[in-house]
Amino acid sequence: MSTQRSNAQVSDAITNPNAQQQKLMAFTKDHHALLSPARRIYPELLSEIFASTPIAERFFTCCLWRAVAIATPNIWAYFDVKPRQQFNLMDMWLVRSKASNLIIAVSGSGSADTAATAPCNQQALRLLSSQAHRWEDNSGSSSV
Length: 144
Hints:
Largest sheet: 3 strands, parallel
Shape: rod-shaped
Distance between the termini: 81 Å
Number of helices: 7
Low-confidence stretches: none
Strand order of the largest sheet: 1-2-3
Helix content: 40-55%
Structural class: mainly alpha
Order of helices and strands: HHHHEHEHHE
Radius of gyration: 27 Å
Mean pLDDT: 75
């Protein structure tokens, strides 16, 4: 039985050599992304690169880069408190920052006191003050 099958495969390969080539070309095309240079960078190196780039630019390359960025705590440890800023993602950033020391800046137009006392920033400042034991640096227009 196996001899007949082998003979059939050989006969098919001889009579239709392009079929096998087309299958291989289709397979190569379907899996081309796996050969991307972005996939060959070690996650540890990506973490170092991400630590020096803006957050928004980290997630648009591929799901691997997004996963590495999310799993790199020190890139989630910087908080810039600005007047009238939405802070609905701050909880997520604090969770992703894990035990990393936090760097907090208060900035924006006007004085830092205005930014720190703006009603929209009070919740954010309360949340950050609950993590005061993790503060590494306070910078910007004034310290928090």
